[in-house]
Specification:
This protein has about 250 residues and is α/β, with parallel strands linked by helices. It has helices at about 15-25, 40-45, 60-75, 105-135, 155-175, 195, 200-210, 220-230; strands at about 5-10, 30-35, 55, 80-85, 95-100, 100-105, 140-145, 180-190, 240. The protein is built from 8 helices and 9 strands. The chain has a 7-stranded parallel beta sheet, sandwiched between helices. Strand 7, helix 5 (about 155-175) and strand 8 (about 180-190) form a beta-alpha-beta unit. Helix 3 packs parallel to helix 4. The radius of gyration is 18 Å and the shape is globular. The chain starts with 6 loop residues before the first strand and ends in a 6-residue tail after the last strand. The structure holds 1,4-dihydronicotinamide adenine dinucleotide (NAI). 1,4-dihydronicotinamide adenine dinucleotide binds next to helix 1, helix 4 and helix 6. 1,4-dihydronicotinamide adenine dinucleotide (NAI) binds near residues 146 and 196.
């Protein structure tokens, strides 16, 4: 796909990886719909990109997602791409002991991550695919998974959601190819953003020491991969690991 003049929606686009991907695609001539929960940060991000619009939306809420994608269609008249990037962390061991007392991961902590990181990806992917199928001119959906999809200490909720995201990516590639829609994923390792700032120091140091390239990733390195997926018309149904060589 030639990115120039294409309309691309990016979720969680107000900062971090989402904003970096929106910025690079915008530099390549795309018109960007920035979707985020944080409307103030979104409005600031929109000011930095030409031909961009911001949408306040919680991707975990079906009615908000349906309304947002319908508004994007009204505003831009078309939708060619989606990056499902919005995600949160609420890490914790499934069970742990404290003074011989067994503590359990609360269901609410499981559910909050599943709602945003898995259901949110499904809802946005569904609405974007429906628009693309209606238009009949194909499209590209990129889902942001994680190296944690293989299972990571303290991340029962996050790992399960990111494994689900990887599986949905492959499923959509198979289901949507007949409409000219490609679906692919990116599984970043550890990238410097506000999200990784939230990791407990002990866990962070443990992981950082395991990265063969000896450093965290940069947001522009993930954005570069997103542009590559858009531009390579034979790439579908695969998750690209961009992780400095780390395997967890
Ligand atoms: P971040 O925390 O810096 O930014 C996430 C953005 O998503 C924020 O602007 C936030 O307001 C928005 N957001 C959160 N919940 C939302 C919701 N319910 N609806 C709409 N927007 C919502 O995160 P970061 O680091 O940029 O991560 C982006 C994606 O990349 C996430 O899916 C994350 O799991 C994934 N990832 C990040 C890695 C990293 O090392 N930073 C590594 C692997 C994956």
């Amino acid at each position: 796909m030639d990115i120039k003049n294409k309309v691309i929606a990016v979720t969680g686009a107000a900062r971090g990886l989402g904003f970096a991907m929106a910025k690079l695609l915008s530099e390549k001539g795309a018109l960007i719909a920035l979707i985020d929960l944080d409307i103030e940060a979104t409005n600031n991000a929109v000011k930095e990109l030409p031909n961009a619009k911001g949408y306040a939306c919680n991707v975990a809420q079906e009615h908000e997602v349906v309304q947002t994608f319908s508004q994007i269609k009204e505003d831009f008249g078309h939708l060619d791409g989606l990056i499902n990037n919005a995600g949160i962390l609420k890490d914790g061991l499934m069970v742990k002991t404290n003074d011989d007392e067994v503590q359990k991961l609360p269901l609410s902590q499981w559910q909050a991550v599943i709602d945003v990181n898995l259901t949110g990806v499904f809802l946005c992917g569904r609405e974007a695919a429906a628009s693309m199928v209606e238009q009949g001119s194909g499209g590209v959906i990129i889902n942001i998974s994680s190296v944690s999809r293989a299972g990571n200490f303290g991340q029962t909720n996050y790992s399960a959601a990111k494994a689900g995201v990887a599986a949905m990516t492959v499923t959509w590639a198979k289901e949507l190819a007949r409409y000219g829609i490609r679906s692919a994923g990116i599984a970043p390792g550890f990238v410097e953003t506000e999200m990784t700032d939230l990791m407990p120091e002990e866990a962070f140091n443990k992981v950082a020491n395991l990265i063969p390239l000896g450093r965290m990733g940069r947001v522009d390195e993930i954005a570069h991969t997103a542009a590559y997926i858009f531009e390579n018309d034979y790439l579908s149904g695969r998750i690209i690991d961009v992780d400095g060589g780390i395997r967890v």
